[in-house]
Amino acid sequence: MTSRITVYQSFYENWQIEHLDSAFVPYDCSMHPHPQLYETYWILRLYESGGYRNCDYSGLFSWKFFSKAKIPGPKFIEFVEKNPGYDVYFINPFPLLAYLFFNIWDEGEHCHPGLVGLSQSLITKANYPFSILDLRRNNQDTLLYCNYWVGNEKFWDTYIGFIQPLFS
Predict the structure, then answer these.
(1) 136-162: pLDDT as tens digits
(2) pTM assigned to the model
(3) d(CA 2, CA 88)
(4) In the 3-class helix/strand/coil scheme, how is the chain assigned residue by residue?
(5) Cα separation of 120 and 127, whole Å?
(6) In terms of C-beta distances under 8 Å and separation of at least 24 residues, what long-range contacts does 72-78 make, across chains too?
């Protein structure tokens, strides 16, 4: 049985439309009230609209998907369909980083000094009982850069349930 998979693909300016994958649904993000939140703002809007419930798996990819991931959209969708039984599927366009850094936070701090401290303060304010410094090493099965994932309803509910307190 083939799952219904909807990948929305964000664009912010009209010239980006020509770079969108025809296997994905264009998602107009040109009127961005909070540009510092990048796709996270639109992921929250997609969740609030209930759009993720109209299919088995859905996600929001950036217009740069092909230039970063180096695979066409149908190939990603085929990968999901050929590997049933998971709540979320993703592709990491930067697999080498798993060998250069301990985890995503280590790489983030290297590229954006102060990121770990700022993020930890949000985690603490949201009353989450963990420290970024105690998180384990990422490997090829757990490392994800970019929002190149599709999830089912269970995943969406869990993911949004985790990030909403961070925005509050």
Answers:
(1) 999 888 888 888 999 999 999 999 999
(2) 0.89
(3) 16
(4) CCCCEEEEEEECCHHHHHHCCCCCEEEECCCCCCHHHHHHHHHHHHHHHCHHHHCCEEEEECCCHHHHHCCCHHHHHHHHHCCCCCCEEECCCCCCHHHHCCCHHHHHHHHCCCHHHHHHHHHHHCCCCCCHHHCCCCCCCCCCCCCCEEECHHHHHHHHHHHHHHHC
(5) 11
(6) 72/21, 72/23, 73/7, 73/9, 73/21, 73/22, 73/23, 73/24, 74/23, 76/7, 76/148, 77/5, 77/7, 77/23
